[in-house]
Design a protein that fits this description.
283 residues; alpha/beta; Rossmann fold; six-stranded mixed sheet; 11 helices; 6 strands; 51% helix; binds adenosine monophosphate; binds magnesium ion
Length: 283
């Protein structure tokens, strides 16, 4: 289902972002009722998270990338509103600290990946090292060029060790970015969101789009797929990301439940033995 709602990038695909409409809305989702649908998806996500957490078999890693104002923060706020905060771990990656910069680019990322049972959310990620770093020539070309392969190896390692990985690119148009920045200027209550660097970055729009195309083309794999999310409509963006997360987690539901039932049986059997030997008082 989710492939009609948004676009999963097939391994080896040469992505041209112009071919993907940031305004796209699948006819099965309507603006009216979107909140209720998101509420239902959120409830199911909460239940699935409880199983993920209890089964301790897998971790889940969601990577969020997108241009400034594309809605990374808003997505986290809305999509995870019904998930138990105890089972969630959000990490926002900023300009590397001196300590981070003194290590390889994946050092800080690996340190932040979710352990088994946890849903990890990356607000920006290892991909900044082939995006902002490339656009601003922060390292030589031969260094950023080999990072695509290094990222693929790293993500394979995580997947081999039980991490379910989903990567979402929030695709907005330049006009939509203009409108969102303008809204921040016009609305005094939103002015705190203004970051002068977002305005300065706008002139690099085309360079960023090109850098995103390469990251999406070179780093979408079966074990760590990229999804292009039509993100001009915030309500739609939230719905399709929630739907994709739920669809993905549902595939593991039976496995997690079977595991928990088995554990429950073992615990009950152990308790019965204790009772038989009269070591449990009052039960
Ligand atoms: P924000 O997400 O608005 O808090 O901004 C975080 C800033 O950190 C953005 O401008 C990113 O491009 C920047 N950033 C994140 N990771 C890196 C990196 N590896 N190298 C350079 N800048 C980065
Ligand atoms: Mg920003």
């Amino acid at each position: 289902m989710s492939n009609d709602l948004l676009w999963k990038v097939p391994e080896g695909e040469h992505v041209k972002l112009k071919k993907y409409d940031p305004d796209y809305v699948h006819p099965s989702f309507k603006r009216d009722g979107a909140e209720e649908t998101l509420g239902n998806l959120g409830k199911e996500m909460g239940e699935l998270q409880e199983l993920l957490s209890a089964a301790q078999h897998h971790s889940l890693l969601m990577v969020l990338q997108g241009m400034d104002t594309s809605g990374k923060d808003g997505t986290i706020r809305h999509v995870f509103s019904q998930v138990n905060p105890q089972g969630c771990h959000v990490v926002s990656f900023k300009v590397p600290t001196p300590e981070e910069a003194a290590h390889d680019f994946l050092w800080r990322i690996h340190n932040a990946v979710p352990p088994k049972g946890v849903m990890g959310i990356f607000n920006r990620s290892q991909y900044e090292d082939v995006l902002v770093v490339r656009v601003h020539n922060l390292v030589p070309e031969d260094v950023w060029k080999r990072r695509y392969k290094e990222i693929n190896h790293f993500e394979k390692l995580l997947a081999d060790n039980g991490t379910i990985i989903l990567k979402f690119f929030l695709h907005i148009s330049q006009d939509e970015q203009t409108a969102r920045l303008q809204a921040r200027i016009n609305d005094k209550d939103k002015a705190w969101k203004i970051s002068s660097s977002d305005f300065a970055e706008r002139k690099y729009w085309d360079d960023y789009q090109k850098a995103y195309e390469d990251a999406l083309s070179q780093c979408s794999t079966d074990e760590a797929p990229w999804y292009i999310v039509p993100a001009n409509h915030k309500w739609y963006r939230n719905l399709v990301i929630a739907q994709t997360l739920v669809d993905t987690m549902r595939k593991y539901k039976d496995e997690w439940k079977a595991d928990l039932e088995e554990r429950g049986r073992k615990e009950l059997a152990a308790l019965q033995q204790l009772r038989a030997s009269n070591e449990v008082k009052g039960l």
